[in-house]
Structures are given as C-alpha cells and as structure tokens.
Amino acid sequence: MTDATVRHYLDVLASAFVVRVLAPFHENLGKRQVKAPRVYVTDSGLLHALLGITNRRALDVHPSWGRRGKAS
C-alpha cells in the first residue's frame, strides 16, 4: 500500500469522525526527518474490537490499559 493511499484512508476516517489525526507539534525544516501524525481511534467499541478485547476481564489485563497497582 502506498503512502498516499494510507493518507487518503486516514482522511476518510477522520472526516467520518472514526479517528482523530493530530499533526506533529514541531516541524524540523532543517532536518530531513519526517514526523508521523498521531492517530487516535475515537470509538471505544471499535478500538476494543481491533485490540481483541471481548469482556471486562480482558480489558483489565490488557497492556494498553496502562499502569495500575502499587506506587513504586
């Protein structure tokens, strides 16, 4: 899949409010490094389906849920 195709699909999903695309905050014009935008899925049901989370127990143990437990 080409770079332009992926950008087009992201634009379509963003216009349908399925994802939110955040552009990089800083642009490095002096460097040749291309910073990719951050893509966030706005529909939690779709996100859980993509991550394979089917119930509350699976959500509690999934690594994307974040750090929980005792403070270090």
How would you characterize the overall build of this protein?
This protein is α+β, with helices and mostly antiparallel strands. The chain has helices at 3-15, 44-51, 56-61, and strands spanning 19-22, 38-41. Strands 1-2 form a two-stranded antiparallel sheet. The termini are far apart.
Key attributes of the depicted protein:
single chain, 72 residues, alpha+beta, two-stranded antiparallel sheet, extended
How would you summarize the topology of this molecule?
Layout: H1 3-15, E1 19-22, E2 38-41, H2 44-51, H3 56-61
Antiparallel strand pairs: 1-2
Distance between the termini: 44 Å
Strand order of the largest sheet: 1-2
The helix tally amounts to: 3
Question: Percent of residues in helical segments?
Answer: 25-40%
Q: How many β-strand stretches?
A: 2
Q: Stretches where pLDDT falls below 50 for ≥5 residues? A: none
Helix/strand/pairing class, anyone? alpha+beta
Note the quaternary state here: single chain
Major sheet attributes: 2 strands, antiparallel
| N-to-C series of helices and strands | HEEHH
- Beta content: 5-15%
Give a quick summary of the entry.
The chain is of the alpha+beta class and 72 residues long. The chain has helices at residues 3-15, 44-51, 56-61, and strands at residues 19-22, 38-41.
